[in-house]
Specification:
Length: 90
């Protein structure tokens, strides 16, 4: 049995490679900050835009989203971080 911090990976050219897994310790507050980060939200937006996502329950289209998002995001983000955000029913 391998130590918990190592993982065994089979090399496509033959042989086995062992890689060390480095686990970052972070609190739930930091996790939420990472989820709500500009980089993460931007990455999610790029994926939705690339898939030509359909409007959600709010009816906002891909074309309208950037403008609406810039206006609404600071308030939404702060209510999430404060623990007061209540999503709309589906």
């Amino acid at each position: 049995m391998l130590p918990r911090h190592l993982v065994r990976i089979v090399n496509p050219n033959g042989g086995v490679v062992y890689k060390r897994i480095v686990e970052e310790q972070f609190s739930n507050d930091q996790l939420l900050e990472r989820i709500l980060s500009t980089e993460n939200v931007g990455l999610a937006w790029k994926k939705v835009r690339a898939n030509k996502g359909a409007p959600g329950i709010d009816g906002i289209t891909i074309e309208e989203f950037p403008f609406t998002f810039r206006e609404c995001w600071p308030e939404i983000r702060s209510t999430i971080l404060e623990g007061h955000y209540v999503p709309s029913p589906v």
